[in-house]
């Protein structure tokens, strides 16, 4: 059973291009000098931080970068949320949690950080001022082997948290962000909900899944209105989404089955273009610079594309596995988590890194 659970952990971890509640420890300052070393190279800075790094968020004030960490999957319980200086990547705080952390979102006032606890099928709310856990919700669903549905992506919209469940069939949980009470389940969400995006232009929520579908959801009724299969009968495992609101384009990645980036009409789901970008995982659109950013997990690169011609303007070699992407509010800085591979005993080959790329240099 332990082996199966470890394999499940690795599967969920790999998908995050992808218990009783205890309080997190108070925020701690600065890690050891070795983990504070930052490698600088013109417009790129890279720092080894810790095992198991996943998603990132910046607070509204722009002075704190939070990084969700699951730490190691071998003989390590719990995780950490790191608080970094966005300009220097130095640690300014740590919140130690009893469960492992994957996805992340932050409240509009920056007072609450929400993280997904994928292996335990739940979400936690942390007080950003103290690093302590405020409350937690663990979902009841279990798969046929008795394990919780993996709570993967998390999106905050209009006071509600939308949480994608990695299961077959999948579910999207709708949780009140203030009370952390489950308000609604959006069922029949296909195989594995992998990505979530809200469009202010269409006032719809878009969910990608592992069956090659994009679900169009009305957040007022919490119902699926449309199901798009942009690649038809061809196999696809759609992952992350980004939008150009000015042109109505929706960008969708697939790093394993179709190995492409799709450009869709956000109103109809029609394929505008299928980009030959290979194993793309993370995707961000930058309206300030009219650029698209893609992480290629297996190829070890981050691509910068012209958003009109789709030509590659620049690429950054970030081996072995660039994963999650985060764009600063001013559109001039891109953050990347770079992950290490796993050994046969399920330990990692080294600590993961955080990269800060200055786009205006």
TrEMBL record:
Residues 35-150 form the SMP-30/Gluconolactonase/LRE-like region domain. Residues 1-23 form the signal peptide. PROSITE patterns: PROKAR_LIPOPROTEIN (PS51257). InterPro entries: Haem_d1_sf, Host-pathogen_enzymatic-act, SGL, WD40/YVTN_repeat-like_dom_sf. Keywords: Signal. Pfam families: SGL (PF08450). This is YncE family protein. The lineage of its organism: Bacteria, Pseudomonadati, Pseudomonadota, Gammaproteobacteria, Enterobacterales.
């Amino acid at each position: 059973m332990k082996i199966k659970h470890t394999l499940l952990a690795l599967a969920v971890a790999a998908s995050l291009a992808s218990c009783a509640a205890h309080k997190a420890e108070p925020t701690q300052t600065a890690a050891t000098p070795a983990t504070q070393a930052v490698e600088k190279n013109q417009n790129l800075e890279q720092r080894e931080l810790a095992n198991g790094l996943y998603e990132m968020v910046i607070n509204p004030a722009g002075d704190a970068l939070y990084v969700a960490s699951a730490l190691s999957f071998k003989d390590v319980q719990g995780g950490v949320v790191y608080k970094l200086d966005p300009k220097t990547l130095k640690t300014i705080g740590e919140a130690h949690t009893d469960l492992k952390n994957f996805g992340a979102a932050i409240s509009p006032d920056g007072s609450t950080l929400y993280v997904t606890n994928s292996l335990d099928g739940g979400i936690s709310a942390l007080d950003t001022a103290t690093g302590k856990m405020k409350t937690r919700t663990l979902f009841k669903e279990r798969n046929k082997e008795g394990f919780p549905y993996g709570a993967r992506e998390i999106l905050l919209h209009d006071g509600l948290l939308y949480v994608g469940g990695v299961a077959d069939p999948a579910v999207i949980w709708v949780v009140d962000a203030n009370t952390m009470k489950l308000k609604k389940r959006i069922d029949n969400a296909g195989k594995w909900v992998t990505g979530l995006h809200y469009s202010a232009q269409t006032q719809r929520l878009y969910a990608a899944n592992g069956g090659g579908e994009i679900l169009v959801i009305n957040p007022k009724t919490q119902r699926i209105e449309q199901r798009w299969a942009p690649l038809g009968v061809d196999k696809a495992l759609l992952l992350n989404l980004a939008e150009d609101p000015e042109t109505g384009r929706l960008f969708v990645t697939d790093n394993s089955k179709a190995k492409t980036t799709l450009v869709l009409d956000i109103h109809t789901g029609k394929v505008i273009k299928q980009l030959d970008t290979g194993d793309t995982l993370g995707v961000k659109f930058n309206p300030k610079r009219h650029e698209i950013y893609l992480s290629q997990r297996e190829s070890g690169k981050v691509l910068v594309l012209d958003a009109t011609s789709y030509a590659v303007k620049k690429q950054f070699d970030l081996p072995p596995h660039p994963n999650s992407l985060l764009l600063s509010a001013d559109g001039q800085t891109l953050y990347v988590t770079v992950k290490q591979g796993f050994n046969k005993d399920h330990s990692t080959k080294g600590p993961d890194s955080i990269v800060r790329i200055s786009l205006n240099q």
